[in-house]
Amino acid sequence: MRVGVLSWDRPWIWLLPLTAMLVAFTIMPLLYNIWLSFHEYHTFSRELRWVGGANWAQLVADARMWEALGITLFYFAVTLTVQVILGMAIALLLDDDEIGFGFLRTLLTLTLVVPPAIAGMMFLLIEDPEFGVLTYVLEQLGLLDKTTPILATASTAIWGVMLVDIWQWTPFMVLIFLAGLRSLPPEPYEAAMLDGASAFTVFRRITLPLMQKVIAVAVLIRGIDIFRMFDYVFVMTSGGPGTSTYTLSLYSWQQTFSFIKWGYGATLSLFTLLIILIVANLFIWVAKVRW
Amino acid sequence: MMVRSKSSRVLRSVVAWGTVLLFAFPLYYWLTVAFKDGKEIFNYPPQVWSFSPTVRNFEEIFGISLGFGFGEQREVLPGGGNWRMAPRLWDSIVIAVLSTGIAVSIATLASYALSRMEFAGRHHFVSWVLSTRMMPPVAVAIPVFFIYKELSLLDTYTGVILIHALMNLPLAVLLMKSFFDDIPHEIDESGMIDGASRFLIFRRIILPMVKGGAAATAVLCFIFSWTEFLFVLTLTQTGLKTVPVVSSTFVTSTGTAWGNMAALGAAAMLPAFLFILLVQKHLVRGLTLGSVKQ
Amino acid sequence: MRDSDRKFYRAKIVDDYVRGRLDRRSFLKAASALGLGAGLFGTGMARPRPSFAASGTPTLEPSADVLAWVKEVSKPFAGTTLRLATESTPPSNAINSQLKKYFEEASGMTVEIEVLPLEQVLQKLTLDIASQLGTYDLYYIDQSWAASVSRDVFDPREQMAEKPDLAMPDYNMDDFLPALVDGIAKYEDRWVGVPYDIPIFIMQYRKDIYDKMGFKAPETLEEYYEQAKAITEEMGPNMFGSTGQMKSGHYSLECDWTAWLWGHGGSIFTPDRKFSGNDEAGLAAMEYWDRLKTTMPPGVTGWTWDGQGQSVAQGVAATMMSWGEFFPYFDDPNATKVSGLMEAARCPKPKALRTVSETGFGEIPGVGHQGGSSLAVSRNSKAPDAAWIFMQWATCYDTQVLITALGGGTGPTRESVYDDERIIANRRVGAGTTRHLDVVRETIAKDMGSEPDLPQWAELSNDTIPVRLGKYFAGEYSSAKEAMDDIAQATDKIVSAG
C-alpha cells in the first residue's frame, strides 16, 4: 500500500477539493478585504488610495456603526431565542404519527423555499399600514392603532422585521429538531415511563441533554445567518424609520454599493466577521461542541 | 411513548394543525395575490377568501395565454419585458441543481476524511470550514467580482454555480460529517481487514449508508442556492438571472407589480417544493446532526 | 358629434374591444356607426395586435425612414451585442418589450436590457465604472448621479460632431426641452447624455370628490392644505385629503421634502455651498409639511411612491402632488378603482421661490420636483459607435412618440412629441393615457425643481437627509429645528470632506 501524501489512506486527497474551494473563495477575499480596509476608493480619480488606519479609526468613532451593532445584537438575540424555543415546541408537537402529521411537516418546510427577498416583500404587503392583513387583524383586535404603522414606528419596526425571520426560519429549526428527536434512543424513555415521570421532567432530564449537540449546532448555523441578515431590512424598511432597523450588514452594503466607500465597507465587513468569530467561538467553547 | 387519552390526542392534533396553518397562511395569502387583479390586491379590508380569481398575472410573466378569455397582453408590461420568466426559472434550476451536486460531492469526500482519519488540527480545520460561512456576503461579493472579471466568469453559469457551491460547503461538511460519525468505525475496519482499500470501502460500503443524509443535505443546499440574492445580483448581468433577483425588477418607478411578483414567486415555489417532496422522508429522518453519538 | 368627441369615442371603443370589455359584434356596430368601417380592421381578423391597441387610426409602427437609416448606418456593426442596465421605467419597458425588436431587425445588432430597481442600477453602474469593465455600452443615469459619472460617458454633442456619418438626420438636439437639458443632462458645461425620461411632480386629484366638495384645483399651497383638511374631516376616516411618499431612509422622502422646501422659498444649499434647509424658509416648509401630514393616511411614513400611488389608486387618498408617471396608471380600470376619476393640474403656486443664483451646486428651486434620467454612451464601451446609433434611435422623435403612445404615458423629453397626433389621439380614459401631458409640459416649463449636482448627492439624498427626516417623523427629534440642524451638520461635513 502506498503511503504517499496523495494516498487515499491519508486525509489530504479527500480534503483537497474542499480546501481548494475555500482558499480560492474565502482566503483571497479575506486578504483582499484586509488590504481594502487600508485604502479608500476615490471617486474623482477612480483609484484606490492608501489611507492607513483611517478607516479603522473612523469605525471606532462612528456612532452610527455602534448603533447598528446594538440593533444587530438585539435582533440576533431575540430572533434566535424565539426560533429555538418555538422550533423546539413545534418539533415536540409534530413528533408523533397522528394522521396527517407527515403532511404538516412537509407543509411547514414550504416557508424555506421562499427567497428571503420575496418573503420580505410578502410581509411588506401583509404589514402594510393601510391594506395589510396583519394590520387589519391587529386593528380589529384592538392591539394596533392605525396611527402607528408597524414598519414605520420606531418602536415596532424591528419586531415587524423579526416576524418575517421567525416565520421563515422557525421551520428550519423544527426540521433539525425533529430529525434529532426521531433518532433518540428509546431506552431512557421506557425507563422514565416506568418511574412515572411527568412529561416535563422527561423533556428536561432526558430529551434536552440528549439533544444538546443538535441544538448547539442548529444555534450555531442559524446564529451566523441571523447575524448577517440583510435581505429583510433591505426590502422592508431600508433601515428605518430613522436608523431603528439599521443592521451592520445593511450599513456595510450601503457604504460599499451606494456610497462607493469600498474601504470603509470592507472595514465594516471585517468588523462584523470579527464579532461573529468571537461570539461563535465563545459559544462553541461554552456549549462544549466537539466536531 | 406514553399512553395518552383520546382527548389529549385530539387537542394535540388541533394545536398542530392550527400552528402549521398559521405558518402556511402568508403563503396562502401570497398565492391569492398571484391570482388577483391590481385593485383587489389593495383593498380595505383585505380580501382573504373572496375575490374573483384571474390568471392574468401568470399570463403576463410567461407571455402565454391560458385561454380563459384574457388573450391580450397589456401594451407595456410592468416589469419591462418580464414576460420571459420561463428561462429565469430554468436558470434557477440549473444553478441550484449543479451547485448542490458540487457542494454535496466535495463535502462528502472531505467529511469522510474528517470523520475517519485522525490528523493534527482536525478540530481546528472543522472550525475553520465553519468560519468561512461567517464572512458577510457583501465582503465576498466585491473581490469575487474582480476575480471573476479576470477569469471571464462574470455572467456565466459556472461562476454562479461555483459561488453557490462554496456558500453551501460549510453547512454541507458539518451535516455530512455528522452522518459519517453515526456509522460505527468497526465497519470500515472489518473492510480493511479484508484488504479493501479506503476508497473502495468508502464507495461500496459507507457511501450507500449515508444516502439519506446526503439527500437531506442536498435539500438544504438546494434551498440556499434557490433563494440566494446578493451574489447573483452582483455577478450576473444580462446573461442569466435567478428568481430572487429577477423578482426585484417588478419594483418599478411607477409602483410595484405585486400581482406579477406573486405569480413568479408562486411559480418558483413549485420546483423547489417538488424537490423537497422527492427527498421528504430523508429530510425528517436525515438531519440528525449526529445526535446519537455524544 | 364634434370631431374631437368622435375621435375620443373611437379611441375608447377600440380600447374597450382590445381589452375584451366589448364583444366583437358590438364593436363592429359602434365602429360602423362612426364610419370606421369593418374593412379597416379586417372582417376576418381576431383581435388587433397590441401595438394597435392604444389609439384609434394612427398606426403605432416605427417610421420606415428611421428604420431605413438604422439599417444603412448599422451595416458595419451587424452582430454587435449592446447592453444597457436601466431602472424599470415606462420608456425602458416600452423599448424592451415592444420596440427593441424593430431596431434589432433593422440593425442586425442584439440589444440586451437589464431591468432593475433604481438602487441596483447604481450598484451595477458603479462596479462597471470602477472596474472599467465595459459590460454596459449605455448608461441609464438618474439625475442625482449625473455629477459622479459625467466623465465616464460621451458628450452627445461631441459624438454628433465627430462622427457626422453616424449622425441621424433630423435628430435635432434642440428639440429636447431646454429645462430638462439643464436639469437632467447638464453637469457643469458638459452634457451627460440626453434627457431620456421625465417623471415630475404634478397635482393629481379626484375630480369627483373635488366637485362634491365644491373645490377647484388648488392655487396655493395653503389652499391645498385647507382642501385636504376639509376632505379628511368630511369624508374620513377612510378617505384622506392628501398622501405622501415618506418612507424613512428612502430617496422618495427626500423628494417630498424638496417640493415643500422649494415651495416655501427655501433651498437645499446656499450659494456658498452650505446646507440651508434649517433657515427660516426651511422651517416654514417643515411646519407646513407637519400640518399637511395630518391629512395623509397614517401609513405614509412606511410608503415609497408605490404605497403613495396605491393609496390614490385604491381610493384612500383624494389627491397627490407627486410623480406624473402615475397618472396613466390611475386610468387603468384593471388596476385601480379611480379610472377616469382623476384630473391633473399644475402644482399649487409656491409661497416664494429662490432663484438659481441664490442656491448652490446648480440647484433649481421649483414645486415640480423632477426625477428625470438621461441616456448616454459609456466611455468603457467596446462598441461606442454602435451604442451611439442605438442611443440616437432610442431617443429620437419617432421612438419617443411610440414610447409615449404605447401605454407608457410617460412624459416625453422632446418638445415636438407633445404635439404629435398619435399622442393627442391617446387622450382617452384608459391605461397609458396621455391626457395629463399638457400639464406635464407646462410644469416642466414653469414649475420644475431640480436637485443640486454634486458627487456626494447620491449619499446625501439616499441616506443623510431621508434617514434624519425619517427620524424626525418617528418623533426622535424634539423639534423640526433640531432635525434640520442635525441634517445641516451632517451634510456640511460630507460636502466639505469632498
From TrEMBL, chain C:
Q: Per the record's keyword annotation, is Nucleotidyltransferase included, yes or no? A: no
Q: Main location per UniProt?
A: periplasm
Tell me where in or outside the cell this protein is found. Periplasm
UniProt KW Amino-acid biosynthesis keyword: no
Sorted alphabetically, which InterPro entries does this protein's record hold? Bact_solute-bd_prot1, SBP, TAT_signal, TAT_signal_bac_arc
Keywords of the record: Periplasm
The family database entries (PANTHER family) matched by this protein are listed as: ARABINOSE-BINDING PROTEIN-RELATED (PTHR43649), DIACETYLCHITOBIOSE BINDING PROTEIN DASA (PTHR43649:SF12)
Protein's name in the database: ABC transporter substrate-binding protein
